[in-house]
Write a structure and sequence with these properties.
The protein has 195 residues and is mainly alpha-helical. Helix content is 83%, strand content 0%.
Length: 195
């Protein structure tokens, strides 16, 4: 082997190594560019995820407000009933009519079914989830929770369930304790409906 040939082979290997280094550098730069783009997209996805979570809360709040507005008339009648009860004047007939209407409302299986459908529709299935998570509760505890989800106050619920507000406050405390002691996924949401 001649020296010229060795020099030529070494030069060829150097050129080939230089090309491979250049290609490697180019590939490394491309990899950094891709990584930067991926980091940017990850940031955008995180931002969108936070935006969606915020929208979910807004939608839930809107659903709660819609339910409350939907039943405003019933709440008003309950309020009027309590006011008229204190007055012995000519409002007795109105009081009796309102009480009958309100009691029928609270006891009607059809209305309870409709309330459940509305509550599930506007609160992402909360009643359905609650009934699955707490199958051992009495029907009256489940109705009490439903009325709370729908936004009724204690006076209204006391008329629907033919119970005094103090007894319902005890029921509420007992139900909150039972929910709080559980490990169900939606525990905090259920508790928020019993404020």
């Amino acid at each position: 082997m001649t020296v010229d040939r060795l020099v030529r082979e070494t030069e060829e290997k150097d050129v080939m190594l230089s090309r491979k280094e250049a290609q490697l550098t180019q590939n490394l730069m491309e990899l950094h560019r891709i990584q930067d783009a991926l980091n940017e997209k990850t940031g955008e996805l995180n931002s969108k995820e936070m935006e969606l979570a915020s929208r979910d809360k807004e939608i839930e709040s809107l659903g709660d407000n819609l339910l409350r507005q939907y039943f405003e008339n019933i709440r008003w009648m309950c309020s009027e009933y309590f006011k008229a009860r204190e007055d012995d004047g000519g409002r007795e007939r109105m009081v009796q009519a309102i009480r009958k209407h309100v009691e029928d409302f609270g006891e009607s299986a059809e209305i309870n079914t409709r309330l459940t459908e509305l509550a599930n529709k506007h609160t992402n299935g909360i009643i359905e989830s609650f009934n699955v998570d707490f199958p051992g509760l009495s029907d009256s505890d489940k109705r009490f929770f439903l009325f709370n989800v729908c936004g009724f106050d204690m006076e209204s619920i006391s008329l629907f369930m033919k119970s005094n507000p103090r007894a319902l406050a005890t029921r509420k405390s007992r139900l909150k304790a039972k929910i709080n002691a559980s490990t169900v996924k939606y525990r905090d949401i259920y508790l928020s409906k019993l404020k």
